[in-house]
Amino acid sequence: MATSDIEIAEHNLQHHFADMDQQRETSTFGMWLFLVTEIMFFGGLFCAYLVYRATYYRAFVEGSQTMNIWLGATNTAALICSSLTMALGVRCAQTDNRKLMTILLIVTMLFGLVFLGIKAIEYHEHWTHHQFPGPNFSFPEAEANGVNPQNVQIYFSLYWAMTGLHALHMIIGVGLVLWITIAGARGLYSADYYAPVENVGLYWHFVDLVWIYLFPLLYLISKKHSG
Amino acid sequence: MSTEEHRQHVIASSVYVVIWATLMVLTAITVFASFIELGELNIVLALTIATIKATLVVLFFMHLFYSSKLTKVTVIAAIFFLFLLLALSMTDYLTRSWATYPAH
Asked: How far apart are CA A186 and CA A171, in angstroms?
């Protein structure tokens, strides 16, 4: 270990921890506890989705027909790719490869921005078609198929709430990755101290994880117009 | 000062690439499966694939496979409580139509 690494390590060891390993394990465990609360946070929305999907299945089928599966699939692929570059970025932090870590983290952010850009296009499309819950909501296709538009509105309420909360997490995630990219480029991390990189990585993968469930649940309900 | 043996397990890059490729293939399968009408099985298949993908992400991208027992127990507890939230709620909503009540 180089002298500078020891200095970084000693400088980063807080007095209430025995050593760097205990400190890193503690911070990662804390991050997992936070993610547990996030699971329950999104869990409430997933539960609402489950209840209303079971109750108004045909309205959910109607609503999901407006989703562009290819945009959704592209976004899924973008997030999976970003998770790969994030995981490799964390690995670079573990192996003291600062230059490659910076590149991989920037690529991770770019994938994240691609996701948000495509999401913005989809939101714009839904907004201009009055598929936003509220007084201006309109869904003429529903009545033609014998479905109450009010129930389709429930689908769109959940769609906006779930993808909106997810998109908010993505925006926060891009901000966090930007933070560790700058800190990493300034040489604040080493193989002995990279907990922030590891924990932002955990957050990023968690957000990817939520989308892995959102995509099939919101986009791929049924290709067939029947209950 | 040697902390090599205590350091977190560094996973080979090839493992990450294999997991990524698997996730991409599973995404393609889930999209194409959605175009085939399987009735009730559509959602079962979609959620099964999603759960396989989620498991791969948690175990390898999030290093849970190499994490301490404490972290593993915590994650399993989270999944358990999420299941409890969903399952107990559905025991109510899904069974409301089973019972018939006399008119008041």
From this structure: 23
